[in-house]
Amino acid sequence: MEKSNYSFKDTLIIGLMMFALFLGAGNLIFPPALGQEAGTSVWPAITGFLITGVGLPVLAIIAVAKSGGDLQKISKRVGAVFGLLFPLAVYLAIGPLFGIPRTGSVGYEIGVLPYLAEGGALSLLLFTIVFFSLSYWLSLNPSKLVPRIGKILTPILVVVLSVLTFSGIFNTAGEALSPTGTYESFPFFTGFQEGYFTMDAIAALVFGIIVITRMKERGLTDRKALTQKAFQVGLIAGTGLIFVYLSLAYLGSTSVSILGYQENGGVILTGLSQFLMGGTGLILLSTVITIACLTTSVGLISAFGEYVQKTFKAVPYWAATAVVTVFSFVMANMGLTQLIQFSLPMLVMIYPVAIVLIILTLFDELFKGRKEVYVGSVAGAALVSIADGLATAGIFPQISTAIIYMFPLAEIGIAWLIPSIIGGVAGYVFQTVFHTSASRA
């Protein structure tokens, strides 16, 4: 019988920590933009968004717990080389190449820039020095992440965000207009694809190790118990995210008659905050954005440091986190636009493969964990996702686009689904036939 000091209070605090880690600035920006474009179709659109923006991250946390709390273990089911390269690609994309620098860039552009008469390289430099120094200090002792974020930063974030949200719901006088773009024909699937850009399913594969490590520190080591508690943590974090996404999407859908169509969700949030609450609203928004960026930055730095320490045992945690913090600081000062252009193709390549790995891990028992199923499914998804990434990067765009549109569902952004299913079935059949033949021989 396992002895543990673990309690429901620990689950609640870790769940709140996960909510704060997931709720980066990007998560606050996408739903209002979706609401504006979806208009009267906001509810089917946000439903699709919730599946990929909330459902997949929760499933990813469970998958990591079920595998033993390690993305490498999940990836190695495809093969040794893939088990080394895919986690590295995920950690680089969600970490120093995009995820961590974006927290600093967005925190500056929305949390600080509106107060400056004229922004520039110097003000960005000063802000990111303070921002990443604080991020490094908070992540330096990962065992303190739970009390620092779960007990302190998350309640502040929830209170401030609730004030903004309820003020908008009860005071806005705007009305939703007709949907625009692909939201006219495919509101659900457009929202489904928009949920990718939160990066939370990938982030959950990274943050999962933080959750499992914190649980183990509290004496919880049984695999089944870890999976059960991870599910509860995911529900707590997911419930918070659903509240935020539904509220912000609704506010976005009613904002057009007040603000007109805006280029991004950050401008929408800024305009709504000023419209609803004047200067106080802008201060509240700046507080939310800064805290959201900070908590995400801390979580990503800590996760990357633990990954490096585990993979390259000679590198101490403090050194790994220091290097990734300094590198992210440099990248953040390149500018947000350049970061997105550089990293988006990699994210497009990674995301479908990550989804496939999450689903296969959850249903591993159904096909008895056969490696061929993993290889076939991942290869099928990768065939399309790599072509999609190349097209996004403008590399061989005609050939890449032609490959994507060879498959069904390309028009709604999930052309990788059918090849992945076919690959998994083919792998299962191949292994079954080969194993049977070998047994008879």
From TrEMBL:
It is a multi-pass membrane protein. Keywords: Amino-acid transport, Cell membrane, Membrane, Transmembrane, Transmembrane helix, Transport. GO terms for molecular function: L-isoleucine transmembrane transporter activity; L-leucine transmembrane transporter activity; L-valine transmembrane transporter activity. The chain crosses the membrane at residues 12-30, 42-65, 77-100, 120-140, 152-174, 194-212, 233-261, 281-305, 317-336, 342-363, 375-396, 402-430. Pfam families: Branch_AA_trans. It comes from the Bacteria. NCBIfam families: livcs. Belongs to the branched chain amino acid transporter family. This is Branched-chain amino acid transport system carrier protein. It comes from Salipaludibacillus aurantiacus.
